[in-house]
Amino acid sequence: MPELPEVETSRRGIAPHILGKTFKAVEVRESRLRWPVAAELAEVLTGQRLRAVERRGKYLLLGAEAGTLILHLGMSGNLRITSPQQIPGKHDHLDFVFADDTVLRFNDPRKFGAALWTSADPMQHPLLAELGPEPLSAEFDAQYLQRRAGQRIACIKSLIMDSHIVVGVGNIYASESLFLAGVLPTRESGSLHREEFERLVAAIKTVLSKAIEQGGTTLRDFTNAEGKPGYFKQALAVYGRGGEPCRTCAEPVQHLKIGQRASYYCGRCQR
């Protein structure tokens, strides 16, 4: 599943090609995504100028003159820049065509993504209104996270993956952040001390910032007509390395499931 760094990389990849341009047409080949694509989307968007390409959590927000197109990549979706001459593939469900014939193509093999239009404030949309703060914002700090943790007995990994607490800390980055902070993923949220919250918030910001930076520098191509945008592979510290030596202490990395999600940690480096 595309996580926050991948979505931010997507935003940065497509923005230079479409920002400021005018929608000429919208071609909907498959409207049955996670939520149906509105039948009037093409009529609404045509003729509008794209004023902003933003992100909120894992949602991309294409701000036009009369409203906002909310895009979500679902489990396996991606966006790429192409041209009308490029024949769409089986899972290329949406084309947003601009006046200069630049095409933003939405590909979604599993059809769990979304393309939703709102003429109201997008931040008040039901999908966005209850989201927690952005993890890289000043609002997300140790004081905030400690307050939200309170006396909760839910494990700390589940807490930081809750989008109502903080957005965009997906499974991979939760494991990596907890390792960097030296905190076991199974710890009760309310058991952490202030110093541990300080380390954890700093770790989340560091891990996500590095992932975004790496994505921006190793992105294969958002204009490759032959294939799909290339997300980045990273040298992960613990995630996906169950049984392998910890990169810090050489103890085997442990693996368990928390909330039906794979979790990885080092029993020596994390407490």
UniProtKB/TrEMBL annotation:
Cofactor: Zn(2+)
Positions annotated to bind DNA: H91, R110, R152
Keywords: DNA damage, DNA repair, DNA-binding, Glycosidase, Hydrolase, Lyase, Metal-binding, Multifunctional enzyme, Zinc, Zinc-finger
Active site per UniProt: P2, E3, K58, R261
Sequence ranges assigned to domain FPG-type in this UniProt record: 237-271
Stretches that traverse the bilayer: none
Sequence ranges assigned to domain Formamidopyrimidine-DNA glycosylase catalytic in this UniProt record: 2-113
Gene Ontology terms for molecular function: class I DNA-(apurinic or apyrimidinic site) endonuclease activity; oxidized purine nucleobase lesion DNA N-glycosylase activity
InterPro entries, alphabetized: DNA_glyclase_Znf_dom_DNA_BS, FPG_cat, FPG_Glyclase, FPG_N, H2TH_FPG, Ribosomal_uS13-like_H2TH, Znf_DNA_glyclase/AP_lyase, Znf_FPG/IleRS
Keyword Lyase: yes
SMART domains named in the record: Fapy_DNA_glyco, H2TH
Cofactor note: Binds 1 zinc ion per subunit.
Domain of life, per lineage: Bacteria
HAMAP family: Fapy_DNA_glycosyl (MF_00103)
Subunit details: Monomer.
Family per record: Belongs to the FPG family.
Protein purpose: Involved in base excision repair of DNA damaged by oxidation or by mutagenic agents. Acts as DNA glycosylase that recognizes and removes damaged bases. Has a preference for oxidized purines, such as 7,8-dihydro-8-oxoguanine (8-oxoG). Has AP (apurinic/apyrimidinic) lyase activity and introduces nicks in the DNA strand. Cleaves the DNA backbone by beta-delta elimination to generate a single-strand break at the site of the removed base with both 3'- and 5'-phosphates.
The protein's name: Formamidopyrimidine-DNA glycosylase
Name of the gene encoding the protein in the UniProt record: mutM
